[in-house]
Amino acid sequence: MKAVWIIAKRELQAFFDSLTAYILLILFLGLSGFFTWIAVGDIFLVKQASLRIFFQIAYWSLFFFIPAITMRMIAEERRSGTIELLLTKSVTARQIVAGKFLGGLILIGIALAFTLPYVITISRIGNLDDGATICGYLSLFLMSASYIGIGLFASSITDNQIVAFLLALAIGILFHWVFGILAATNTGWISSVFSAFDMNVHFDSMSRGVLDLKDVLYFLSLAFSGIFLSEIFLNKHNIIS
Asked: Which pTM value belongs to this model?
């Protein structure tokens, strides 16, 4: 566990040293704030104590931002050769992947924490549904964990950051759009199967305040699948090297 935490801190330091974290945090907060308070929601005008608009905006923002965060995590280390150095030390591929995953998750947690003033402000407009708010933030956090896992997998199979970014987006599009379209264009059990893979279904359910175990398991399954596949590719890369 100590090795995982050291790698996570190293990853966070690399984010902030390269200004990547600052740029992404500013973009995320700027976009979510602009569309929540001005362009789409205009909450002060509507005077509706709800964070639904913010959750929808953040849902789309994080879809693009997370691949930008994860694209360099393993790909850059493979390109520079530092991944071989790590693997020759008393650090396993599992610890490397888990540490990088934790570092990315902490960064997303920081970004979401900076939006807590939204909660305070909106709660002054009216009676904010605490259960829906907590579930909404939990759904964003779990969705982010899923995309970090996917991004790590994409970054583990290439040493090119742009390729890793595009591959993570392509995989994300399957869960963000394609499965939903397939569910809508089919009927019966086939539609149900595609709907079960549709991230919108699980995210919408949780962001409305419905905490269902199947939704939590869906996000965790995606996250751990990405971590598991990343570990496999790292070990394979180490054997080939």
From this structure: 0.89
